[in-house]
Amino acid sequence: MITPPASLATRLAGITLNVVNAMLGFAARLAWRDRLPDSPARICVWRTGNIGDIVCALPALAAIRRTWPNAELTLLTSPGKRGAPGAQELLSEASWLDHLWVYYRDELSFNGFAREIRQSDFDLVLRLPQNMSTPWLELRQLAFLRLFARVPHARNFAVGSLRWLGRGPARALSKSQDLEHEADRQLHLLEDLTVKAHAAEFPLPLNEQVQAEADRVLERYGITSLTLMCISPGAKRATNRWPASRFGEVAKRWINDGGRVLVLGSAGDHPLGSEIQEIAGPSLINLCGESPILLSAALIQRARLLISNDTGAIHLASAVKTPSVVPFSARDVPTRWYPYFSPVSEEATRPIVHRRSPACSPCWLESCPHENRCLTDIGADQVWRSAEAVRALRTAGSEAPALTG
Question: How many separate domains does the chain show?
Fold first, then answer.
């Protein structure tokens, strides 16, 4: 299949992004003119966000650890406000991470924060910036680290979107064939540092205790991995949520075929799980609010597949090599936040993404004036056929189905 040439607007958007990032890189080299240390003793990686953001940063974190195995490694992170899930729930037991430093946006003291970073004596601070960061935010963080925290070396100031220029340029960039997955984008930010990144890896700390608890959950409900499908019906934004009734229809068909279903999510997702259970029947198990993040990852690891909205669960599934079927909202760009799949991944783990591309996409809206048509146009039949295809693939080991639009 021949890829059509990019439009002039798309090419200009790509050039703009590259120029802005080159200027940010130059600003960092100007601020820190000394050569980076070959063997930094104390490294701080600054990555903020929730579950999906942190999972997508794991390959970069793993590459940093592999490059400097003897360094004292700190992850500086924030999930936003206190109570939001993030690295604390995901990486507090990670043996490859020396320190996890969590702060909360609404509780932060500028001077105190700068003083604590300064007193930590980091030799090198590496930013893994958010996709939606802006040049102004990156320059502000650069100035903060150089002038107030006074760290001796810092790198990786970059943006991944043109949303700060308006929807027109941002939409043009979203049509680029070169739009990277977020995990690959973070890895590529490290290339100038000669960081060793041969292939993306996701070192989730699924220790023996977590694995044993997952086994106990399946035993408690009489579930075997061969019959298990997990569902994650929640999402932070209403514009990312496929109707719960359709999750229920798919779950009912799976159960009627002899399968079992676990619904995973936060306590706030419990009503969605109950709605799905009403449709699918009492054999469906609603674990929303009862399965911490790592336990959910271990349960997804044991499943034949995951059906989920665009939320952290799809990235957990990629990390544990379980295929997912995703009704994907068109509020955001394609590719960047899809479940991760690389050319060296096993075909049996390939995700299937259903995404519509209406004229209004990507919109980046928190609520949709068109009744979420980009999601409601995706029928339960389509998702069910994909679930059947994944089940057949996992059973027979045949060629994987392609990503769908």
Answer: 2
